[in-house]
Specification:
The protein has 204 residues and is of the alpha+beta class. It is built from eight helices and nine strands.
Amino acid sequence: MSHNLALVLITNFDETDSYESVLQKLNLDTYKRTGQTTLSAATYDFFDNILWIGHYNRVLILVNGPLAFALQNTEASVTEKTLINVFPHSDIVSLNYGSTSTAYNYVVIQNGKKIRWKRGSQDGTTVDYGEELDIEKEITDEDIITPEDLEDLLNEEPEEDVKLRIEGMRGVRIVHTLFENYLPGLELWNISSDVVPMIEFTKK
């Protein structure tokens, strides 16, 4: 079963603010409320014309491909500048993952400054911007693969290919860890339906 994740997490969300108001501030008011789902279902896949929005423990959750991808640049896009202007004192985190290719992206913006962006897959790292996050330093190869499985891989594949694969697996683990750190108590794709309702907005 494949998963395709593209979402943005924003801390310090004012939970009295309506979702329609948030979208208006972000110049996304062409999206209109059309339904409701769960966070687990919303993060299973993403679509350009649908935006799911919800919140958990004062973290705003926005599931939408174009929104997540707009933060994945060294130069700030118009969307990124708008997000920073609306949420100047928040962490803004973009997470992107495709399970079939093990492709991953993660971006962390703190207090208006992009401090980290990394992109890669099992074929290697293509973007390595900013300083390593603490969680990146904490995750070791042993956390990614057991010594026994590593030995089996080295018997089957060239060492350089194995290193690239482990680096790709590490990137995916970072995506999961960032999700769980910003949404403590939740596990990606393993969330009961009544924990985090997500409102569906469709672009009109």
